């Protein structure tokens, strides 16, 4: 025990002698120093403390903090497989969103607006085109050409059909129709005929119906097609004002037609002028108080019946 005490006293004496030697230096600049911002006496005390303990806790901790950068998760770069995974998840998310939209009511047709028809009903147009409520909205509109061909194939009265999105879930069906212009007789049956000369065999009847005229006296298809085309250009009320159209040429006019009107009058008119001149008929008869014959071949003349 006494030997240990003597050893400690000897160590203390050595440390004191070392400090005295440091304090007795006249030129401090010649000594290697570390700039810490502390006074000379404080640095001496720190040196003594380091000699006694072997290290300075504060300085060691500060050095470690400076040497080891802090981890910031926001600045860490992703690995290649992580980037690939994120891209795949993003693509799947977008695909799921689109799929969810198309199978939801928001992505389906809830209403059709059929416009441009005269004879055809909305139901007949939609059936011919194969259009139904609940069909995918955007894919249906973008396949307008397909539904147009399907409608033309299934119904000869459809000249063209075009689809257009007009509301959140509403599709406009714009139809250009080949109008029905009357009937032709074949045997004992009367068949509807269109403005382009097409005869509708599925609509035959025992007598003309619908207030459209019967065509009679025609000896060639060329004559009939010219008359049908011209008559189809007239308004619906005017078409329904005629009960019969007879091919009736004479020496002065090889294209003369005789029209029997539902009001009891007769009209003489050229086939190639039918759509242009028959439009004046309603204004002419409005000024008359007797039935008779209106001649619209050259000018406009009216002769009352005797």
TrEMBL record:
The chain crosses the membrane at residues 86-103. It is a single-pass type II membrane protein. It is found in: Cell membrane; Membrane. GO terms for biological process: FtsZ-dependent cytokinesis. It comes from the Bacteria. Keywords: Cell cycle, Cell division, Cell membrane, Membrane, Transmembrane, Transmembrane helix. Its main location: membrane. GO terms for cellular component: cell division site; plasma membrane. PROSITE patterns: POTRA. Belongs to the FtsQ/DivIB family. DivIB subfamily. Cell division protein that may be involved in stabilizing or promoting the assembly of the division complex. This is Cell division protein DivIB. The gene is divIB.
